[in-house]
Amino acid sequence: MARIKGIDIPNDKRIEIALTYIFGIGRSRSKTILKDAGVDLNKKTKDLSEAELASIRKEIDKYELEGDLRRDVAMSIKSHIEMKNFRGDRHKKKLPVRGQRTNRNAVTARGGKKKVVANKKK
Fold it and tell me: Per residue, what are the HEC states of the chain?
């Protein structure tokens, strides 16, 4: 298994998909990284040479990923909570933050629990 940014990426997948296992890399960023590194998108991870892996690692180092990105997201949420603005209150109550409805289907924002929202009638 290839190891990039402390993450084991799977050998049996195309490198374009395998890079998305790293937090902060989606499909479009993966394509950009591989294009800049000069690696074919359709190659499997196990077929990559050490030189190709090194060039991918070099391109990935240009972005803020994994632990640093997770820390930034957590600090952003904490700052909203400390400012006591609307978004911070919604985060604190574990409710949807971006204007979604709460009278139905907000279970994922609440962590899978049913929670009463402002005594709404059924």
Answer: CEEECCEEECCCCEHHHHHHHCCCCCHHHHHHHHHHHCCCCCCEHHHCCHHHHHHHHHHHCCCCCHHHHHHHHHHHHHHHHHHCCHHHHHHHCCCCCCCCCCCCCCCCCCCCCCCCCCCCCC
Query: What is the pTM (predicted TM-score) of this model?
Result: 0.74
Report residue 15's pLDDT band, with 50, 70 and 90 as the boundaries: very high
pLDDT confidence bin for 18, thresholds 50/70/90: very high
**Using a CB cutoff of 8 Å and minimum separation of 24, what contacts does 29-32 make?**
29/63
Dihedral sign from CA coordinates of 26, 28, 31, 36: negative
In the block, residue with structure tokens 């395998």: 18
Residue whose pair of structure tokens reads 């709460």 in the numeric block: 102
Q: Which of 68, 13, 4, 3 is nearest to 41 (CA)?
A: 13
Q: Are 80 and 87 in contact (CB under 8 A)?
A: yes
Q: Which two tokens stand for residue 3?
A: 């190891």
